[in-house]
Each structure stands twice: as C-alpha cells, then as structure tokens.
Amino acid sequence: MLTDKMFHQWCLRNHISPETEAYIQHIRSSLPVRKVRKGEFLSQIKLTLTAQAQHTLLSLHT
Questions:
Q1: CA-closest candidate to residue 22, choices 32, 8, 34
Q2: For residue 23, what pLDDT is reported?
Q3: Which residues contact residue 24 at a Cβ distance below 8 angstroms, ignoring those fewer than 6 apart?
Q4: CA dist., res. 5 & res. 17, Å (int)
Q5: What is the pLDDT of residues 4-59, one digit of tens each?
Q6: What own/partner pairs with CB < 8 Å and gap ≥ 24 does 1-9 have?
Q7: CB within 8 A of 16, min separation 6: which ones?
Q8: Terminal Cα-to-Cα distance of the chain (whole angstroms)
Q9: What is the 3-state secondary structure (H, E, C) of the chain?
C-alpha cells in the first residue's frame, strides 16, 4: 500500500485534482464498510445452498 506521501506524489504525476485526491484520501483512511443486502434473493440462495449441502450429506451416507 502506498504511504500518504507516495499517494500524493502519484496524484501529482497523474494530474489528479486536489478535490479528488482529498476524496480518495478520505476513503483510504476510513474503516472498511460492507453493506449486506437483505431480501428474497439472498434467502433463495441460502435455501438452495442448504438443500445442496443436505443432498451431499445424504449421498455420503448411502
């Protein structure tokens, strides 16, 4: 990962505007965030994966 100084130099070499550099720097210094979608689609995936796992387990026992 680039240090702050290296990132600033990269921005200068690539003609990144100061506003964009500040925005990217804010993202670089922020904690990671992951949004989890809730809904029918994810429930269907979970149901499908559970059914596949159960089928596999049953197949192993026979």
A1: 8
A2: 94
A3: 7, 11, 16
A4: 16
A5: 999 999 999 999 999 999 999 999 998 877 666 665 555 666 677 777 776 666 66
A6: none
A7: 10, 24
A8: 51
A9: CCCHHHHHHHHHHCCCCHHHHHHHHHHHHCCCCCCCCCCHHHHHHHHHHHHHHHHHHHHHHC
Question: Side chain identity at 8, as an amino acid letter?
Answer: H
CA–centroid distance for 25 within its chain: 18
Residue whose token pair is 């993202």: 27
Asked whether 7 and 28 are in contact (CB, 8 A), the reply is: yes
| C-alpha–C-alpha distance, residues 55 and 62, integer Å | 11
Sequence length of the chain is 62
The pLDDT of residue 62 is 53
